[in-house]
């Protein structure tokens, strides 16, 4: 007996698949995770209620999700935008650090009224993040050097500079710990009244809308999408791949830089040696899940925030080691990314002899296409 | 591990609350940690995932000791909570009726201050910071004293008079320990010098291994590691260099050239603090306790360490405990206050090669 597996790209994704697969993937991942939870003697239903429902319990718990989501939305955009042009900004973490460093420096050293200083901080961080992405962007646009490698390597440079600064020139607070002074009150992002979420969230949502408009309603967005789907054809059509690559990657860096400062000025109040536990890397699956539209990316960022906040809730409420929660989170991400594949490709499996009519039909369809 | 914890906790509950009636089964049914009666609830929050050795394990050993010793306390922990996510974890514990929350890493300080203000009836304790509040104390050990004793042993054991130290980052806490290790060695061997390798991280097994090999290549035959991983010690044993670990015993992993380790023994502190809260005697202290408090300790010596070395270390230990000996006598830090020693140690004592990076 033979098993034939045919993989065809879908011309169009039916809407029930587009909306159904993520939900199905999450459900499947949670079903598999039951094994890990039961193995340590934890009631999986109770754990999932704690993880996915309780975070919506009060304004305070919803705030926690939004606070967590804010940098993820911004840095997610920082990966999403270059991805639309076919580039992989794997090193968003480095651009985030650059933004955090420069933003913190401005916040501590520039004294202005709050209404002025916050825009200056935001601008400074965006420029820093954009500059950090510029060299990899230029190398890619001009010489075709893989941005995957260069952005990643630039992350290590940024991390070492950050470590040097927080224990050297920017070190502050007593105890000699590797961290800066607390930000002055004027530089702290004000909270949205009644919540703990801060203006960084509003900035992030505004940028989501801006990105939506520019990707769908402007010539620039059309070019980015064209270059992203077929760069050679775009060149033939007279578009500048060079400009698109440079602009999207630098803009992505600027957004990642904003993520860095929004986490510090909105949440942590000072720059620590270990302030960003991998947001820049988390941004890659976020952008992947949301690759079909910026609002889906927004949803993905919110969902990741829920995963993190809910995961912490489980370790507090039940006797679950964080390693088990890591497994659950990883499985959810893995299943979601895998489900993406099925949205874009059709799989037809046929079991039987090779000359069976059915299995031939699959290949007939592809050749006819 | 978790199952063992459950069993033990149920056992405690049944022994302490319902044991005489033999209603352990009922207590299991009614379980769930509601703040019933005068049962004290304490939460421990850790930054890294709980492993077999290291900083977090040392705190966990303290928690387990408290849990085992008192039937009037219930403890719980959360591990792997980064500093930027810890605020919601503190809030959740405070909301669930916990009486004490221990934050076991430096980076928890600012969020803990904020949450402490929101929950004035909950007691907070922060490890290794510099801020306190009315309901938030801070605690840390003078671990450099343990490193001094390790240094005494290293000074005796070295034949090349070259010591090595593999350390994470150049901050006062670490510089103090490098200095104390060297001062201890030179107290018994005035020719001893220390070579230092920074790794820019707290757990970097392959980097630690490379650094140890580089130190051994340069002649170091007694090597201290301030890394959370036992890899450095294993590498040292492979090179037949005596080695010294940190935080918890690493005897099982380190191999035959294991000398000892500087141990963080939080048990006495956690017990006292829990008792104080229970008796209503708790105040927001700033504790920086040394050998005399029991918080600072060293591990049992490894098989290759001769008895006369052990007994000399024991002598010096009791001298420090009695106040007859000070680590910093005769060094540039002689006469420094605890506050200065805590914050401002930014350079090496005589006998450490090179200078502190970026100072």
- Helix and strand composition category of chain A: mainly alpha
Radius of gyration of chain A: 23 Å
Percent of residues of chain A in beta strands? under 5%
* CATH class membership of the largest domain in chain B: Alpha Beta
Low-confidence spans of chain A: pLDDT under 50, at least 5 residues? 359-369
Largest sheet of chain B: 6 strands, parallel
Structural class of chain B: alpha/beta
The topology string of helices and strands of chain B comes to: HHEHEHEHEEHEHEHEHEHEHEEHH
- Overall form of chain A: globular
Subcellular location (chain A): Cell membrane
Transmembrane segments (chain A): 16-42, 62-81, 88-108, 114-135, 147-165, 197-215, 244-265, 297-316, 322-342
Organism (chain A): Halorientalis regularis
Keywords (chain A): Cell membrane, Membrane, Transmembrane, Transmembrane helix
What would your notes on this structure say?
Chain A: Keywords: Cell membrane, Membrane, Transmembrane, Transmembrane helix. Chain A: The chain crosses the membrane at residues 16-42, 62-81, 88-108, 114-135, 147-165, 197-215, 244-265, 297-316, 322-342. Chain A: It is found in: Cell membrane. The complex is a heterodimer of chains A (369) and B (359). The model of chain A is unreliable at 359-369 (pLDDT under 50). Helix content of chain A is 72%, strand content 4%. Chain A has a domain at 73-291. Chain A is mainly alpha-helical and 369 residues long. Chain A has helices at residues 15-39, 44-53, 59-84, 92-109, 114-143, 147-167, 199-217, 219-229, 231-236, 241-268, 279-289, 294-317, 322-344, 357-368, and strands spanning 2-9, 345-352. Chain A is built from 14 helices and 2 strands; from the N terminus they run βαααααααααααααβα. In chain A, strands 1-2 form a two-stranded antiparallel ribbon. With 359 residues, chain B is α/β, with parallel strands linked by helices. Chain B folds into 2 domains: 39-140, Response regulator (Rossmann fold); 143-265 and 295-343, Response regulator (Rossmann fold), CATH 3.40.50. Helix content of chain B is 42%, strand content 18%. In chain B, the strands form 2 sheets. Chain B has a 6-stranded parallel β-sheet with strand order 2-1-3-4-5-11, with helices on both faces. A 6-stranded mixed β-sheet of chain B has the order 7-6-8-9-10-12, sandwiched between helices. In chain B, helix 4 packs parallel to helix 5 (109-118) and helix 8 runs parallel beside helix 9. Chain A binds chain B through residues 40-42, 60-61, 64, 68, 160, 163-164, 167-168, 173-179, 182, 263, 267-270, 272-277, 308-309, 312-313, 315-317, 319-323, 325-326, and chain B through 1-3, 5-6, 43, 49-50, 76, 78-85, 87-89, 91-93, 96, 106-107, 110, 129-130, 169-173, 200, 342-346, 358-359.
């Amino acid at each position: 007996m033979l098993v034939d597996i045919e993989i065809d790209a879908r011309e169009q994704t039916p809407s029930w698949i587009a909306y159904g697969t993520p939900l199905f993937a999450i459900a499947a991942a949670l079903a598999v995770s039951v094994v890990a939870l039961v193995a340590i003697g934890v009631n999986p239903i109770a754990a999932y209620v704690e993880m996915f429902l309780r975070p919506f319990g009060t304004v305070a718990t919803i705030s926690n999700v939004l606070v967590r989501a804010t940098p993820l939305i911004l840095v997610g955009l920082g990966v999403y935008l270059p991805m639309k042009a076919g580039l992989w900004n794997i090193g968003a973490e480095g651009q985030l650090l650059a933004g955090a460093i420069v933003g913190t420096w401005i916040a501590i050293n520039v004294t202005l009224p709050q209404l002025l200083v916050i825009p200056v901080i935001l601008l400074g961080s965006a420029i820093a993040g954009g500059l950090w992405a510029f060299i990899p962007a230029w190398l890619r646009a001009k010489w075709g050097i893989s941005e995957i490698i260069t952005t990643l390597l630039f992350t290590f440079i940024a991390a070492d500079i950050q470590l040097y600064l927080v224990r050297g020139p920017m070190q502050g607070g007593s105890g000699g710990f590797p961290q800066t002074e607390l930000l002055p009150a004027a530089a702290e992002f004000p909270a949205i009244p009644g919540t703990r979420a801060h203006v960084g969230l509003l900035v992030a949502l505004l940028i989501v809308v801006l990105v939506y408009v520019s990707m769908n309603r402007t010539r620039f967005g059309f070019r980015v999408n064209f270059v992203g789907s077929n760069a050679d054809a775009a060149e033939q059509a007279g578009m500048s791949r060079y400009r698109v690559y440079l602009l999207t990657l630098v803009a992505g860096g600027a957004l990642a830089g904003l993520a860095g400062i929004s986490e510090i000025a909105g949440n942590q109040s000072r720059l620590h040696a270990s302030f960003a536990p991998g947001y820049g890397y988390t941004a890659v699956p976020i952008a992947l899940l949301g690759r079909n539209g910026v609002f889906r990316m927004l949803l993905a960022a919110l969902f990741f925030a829920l995963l993190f906040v809910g995961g912490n809730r489980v370790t507090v409420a039940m006797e679950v080691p964080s390693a088990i929660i890591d497994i659950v989170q990883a499985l959810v991400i893995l299943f979601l990314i895998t489900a993406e594949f099925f949205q874009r490709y059709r799989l037809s499996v046929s079991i039987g002899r090779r000359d069976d009519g059915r299995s031939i039909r699959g290949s007939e369809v592809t050749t006819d296409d | 591990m978790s199952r063992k914890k459950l069993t033990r906790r149920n056992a405690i509950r049944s022994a302490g609350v319902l044991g005489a009636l033999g209603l352990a089964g009922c207590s299991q049914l009614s379980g769930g940690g509601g703040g019933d009666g005068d049962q004290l609830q304490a939460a421990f929050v850790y930054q890294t995932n709980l492993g077999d050795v290291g900083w977090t394990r040392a705190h966990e050993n303290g928690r387990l000791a408290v849990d085992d010793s008192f039937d009037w306390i219930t403890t719980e922990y959360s591990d792997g909570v980064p500093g930027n996510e810890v605020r919601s974890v503190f809030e959740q514990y405070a909301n669930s009726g916990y009486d004490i929350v221990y934050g076991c890493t430096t980076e928890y300080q600012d969020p803990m201050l904020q949450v402490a203000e929101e929950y004035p009836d909950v007691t907070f304790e922060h490890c290794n910071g510099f801020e306190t509040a009315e309901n938030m104390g801070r605690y840390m050990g003078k671990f450099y004293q343990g490193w001094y004793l390790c240094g005494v042993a290293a000074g005796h054991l070295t034949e090349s008079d070259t010591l090595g130290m593999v350390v994470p980052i150049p901050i006062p806490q670490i510089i103090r320990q490098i200095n104390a290790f060297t001062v201890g060695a030179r107290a018994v061997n005035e020719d001893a010098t220390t070579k230092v390798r920074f790794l820019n991280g707290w757990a970097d097994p392959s980097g630690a291994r490379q650094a140890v090999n580089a130190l051994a290549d340069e002649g170091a035959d007694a090597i201290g590691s301030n890394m959370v991983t036992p890899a450095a010690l294993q590498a040292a044993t492979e090179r037949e260099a005596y080695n010294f670990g940190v935080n918890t015993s690493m005897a099982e992993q380190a191999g035959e050239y294991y000398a000892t380790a500087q141990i963080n023994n939080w048990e006495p502190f956690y017990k006292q603090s829990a008792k104080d809260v229970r008796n209503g005697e708790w105040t927001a202290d700033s504790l920086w306790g040394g050998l005399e408090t029991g918080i600072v300790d060293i591990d049992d010596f490894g098989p290759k360490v001769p008895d006369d070395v052990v007994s000399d270390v024991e002598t010096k230990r009791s001298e420090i405990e009695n106040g007859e000996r000070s680590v910093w006598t005769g060094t540039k830090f002689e006469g420094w206050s605890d506050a200065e020693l805590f914050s401002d140690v930014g350079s090496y004592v005589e006998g450490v090669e090179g200078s502190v990076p970026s100072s």
